Each structure stands twice: as structure tokens, then as C-alpha cells.
Amino acid sequence: MTALTRRSFLSASTAAIVLTRPDQAHAAPRIALPSDVAQRDAATVTAIRTRSPVVAMTFDDGPHPKLTPILLDMLRARNMRATFYLIGNRVVKWPDIVRRIADEGHEIGNHSWSHPDLSRQSESRVIQEIDRTSDAIFRVTGRPPVTFRPPYGAFSRRQRLMLYEQRNLPTILWSVDPQDWRRPGASVVASRILKGSRPGAIILSHDIQSGTVNAMPRTLDGLAARGLKFGTMSQMMGWPLWQSRRFRRVSAG
User: Fold this and answer.
1) 60 is an active site residue
2) Tens digit of pLDDT for each residue in 3-26?
3) CATH code of the domain covering residue 206
């Protein structure tokens, strides 16, 4: 895959904000993204304003012991990179898959420890969910995540700004949602992604859904046939590749 340079993307502070519906992969009650998501701030990203033909494929809620390896095989065969927003308690359950994700050049993001509706939680509980997951990812891969995606997209502006200030983690939402949690079938998932994607898009999907994984050959090949390339979230943000960054553990105090 051609390397994507910093000049190809805008930073988070100038990200294009697009209002979309939330992720409901865990069959939670419908939660509307807060209306303030339309305001631009460095703490919130839903798409990248860029002229470069690049999109971000993002996969939530894994790793899945059977489906995620199948998806990784598809990405490796096409030399494509994606970003995986992993749930902390799954990270510690399937560390070998997590290592494979990192070793094959994909980025890992924080998707909370237990996938709760964080908009209903206290600040201390939010930080606990996120820190515990970052620590688990660090222990497995040697580096912590540098972006966060809230379960169901449910995270207030106050919470997003708090997290950015306290942990320097931007909240990554999305601009294309195929609603694969409804299990509409692989053909529908692929069609929705292909229809909605354009340069700078952040595409939401779930590697715990068999229909989504089955949709990926048509999806990935279809996007590539349109001349679109695939970047990780760090690349989209104009940051160094996640694998190239070096981190050291510091005390929370």
C-alpha cells in the first residue's frame, strides 16, 4: 500500500463534522448522538476534510475469536490497513489476535472495557473504563491506543473535552454507518458502505458480525476500484503510524 503522508490529511482540529446515527451493535436502546457534535473541536472527529482519495475502515467491538482472523486474512491479501476499536475485556481474553492486529500494521483504538453507555456514567467511571482498556492494549502490544470511540457513540461534548484534556485522546465517531448491527445481510452492508463513502470518510463496521465480514470482499474491492486508498486513523489525522511511535509508562499520580 502506498504510504500516506501528513500532507494528505487535515488534523483533528479541522475535521469535518457530520451528524450520524449511533452504533447499536450490542442491541442497546436507541441513543441519539448529541446535537453539539456539529460543533468543531479538536476533541471530536467524524470525518477528515481532504482532497486525497483515502478512507478509514474501522471495526468495532472485537476481537472476535473466529471472525476477526478471517477479516485480517482479507486485509492482508489486499495489503490494506484498518483501525480496530477493541473492547478491553476481549483484549485480555484473546491477546494473540490483538498482537496479530498490531503486527500486521493495523491500528488499535480504545472502545472501553465493558461497552457501557458512558453518557450515563460518572467521570471517574468513564476514566476507569478507558484507562483499564488502554492498559490492557499496552500490555499486549507495547503501546497504548491514541484514539477513543465511545460505545453507541454516546458521549457528551463535556465528556469528549474532558477526555481530550485529561488523556489527550480524541473521540472518533464516523461518517458512514451501514447499520450492520441490524444484520441486513452482506449485500446490503456492502452497498451502504459503497454508496456512502467518499474521500475522508470514516466508515463504521463491526467485526463481531458475520454479515459484515462476509461483506468485506465486495466492500474493499469496490472502494479500491473507485481509486480509494485505506488509511489508519493516525494516518488520517496526520500522525505517525501507530506502530512507529514509542511510549513509556508513567504513573497516574
Assistant:
1) yes
2) 333 333 333 333 333 322 223 333
3) 3.20.20.370
